[in-house]
C-alpha cells in the first residue's frame, strides 16, 4: 500500500515565491501536480530561475508581480487568477520583509500582516467554491521570543493571529487555515542577518536539537501535507518546523 498526494487540477497562489522558502513551496506543490502562481514584488526576470525550475517538474507556473501591501493591486491579482484559471484552491501567505531590508515598522506591518489579510480576504469567494486551503508562514520566534527584531516578531505574531481568526471564521465554508512556524532556514532573509551562510551555520552549530539548520524544503514538505487530503481534519493548527527548538529547547 502506498499514499499519494495528487494536486492535479488545483491552482495554488504563493506570495513572495520568487525566491527562498516560497519558491521551494511552489516547486513542491508543482511536483504534486498543482498549477502554481508565483507572486512577488520582484520583477519577473529576478524570478526566472524559480519559474524555469518549476516548468521542468510540473505544470507551467504563472507569474504575477504584485505588492501585496497594496489592496487594489491584490484585488487585480486575484481577478487575473479568476480570469485565467477560473478557480483557486490553495493560498500560501509567505511574503515577508524584515528590518534588514531597511523597511520601517509600518512598512513591515503593511506587507507582513495587512498583505496576508488582503490576499486572504480577496481570495475568499474562490476558496469557498473550492473548499480551499490556506497556509500562513509564521515563525517559531513568535512563540519563543528568540529574535533580535521586535518588528519582525510582532508582525509575524500578527500573521499567527490572522491564521486563528480566519480558521474560525472560514471553517463553516470548509476552508482550512493552518500555520507553519519555521526557524533558522538558510535563505536570503537569514543571510542578510548573519552576513553569510557560513556565519549562520557557525552561529547555530550547537543550538539546533536535531543537529542541523533548516532548508526551504523542510518547510515546503510540511506545507504540502497541510494542503493535502492527509490533513483534512486539521484547521487552526500551527506546525513547528524548527528541528525541535520550540519544544525541546536549544541548550543540549
Ligand atoms: N528564513 C528563516 O529562517 C525563516 C524563519 C522563520 C520564518 N520564516 C518565514 O518564511 C517566509 C519566507 O521567508 P524567506 O526566508 O524565504 O524570506 P526571503 O526574504 O528570502 O523571501 C521573501 C520573499 O517575499 C518577497 N516580498 C517582499 N515584499 C513583498 C511584497 N510587498 N509583495 C510580494 N512579495 C514580497 C520578496 O521579494 C522575497 O522574494 C516568511 O514568511 C518568513 O517570515 C523564515
From TrEMBL:
Record keywords: Oxidoreductase
Domain of life: Bacteria
The keyword Oxidoreductase is assigned to this record: yes
InterPro entries named in the record: NAD(P)-bd_dom_sf, Sc_DH/Rdtase_CS, SDR_fam
GO biological process, one term: bile acid metabolic process
Gene Ontology MF terms in the entry: oxidoreductase activity
Keyword Cell division: no
Family recorded in the similarity comment: Belongs to the short-chain dehydrogenases/reductases (SDR) family.
Protein name as it appears in the record: Oxidoreductase, short chain dehydrogenase/reductase family protein
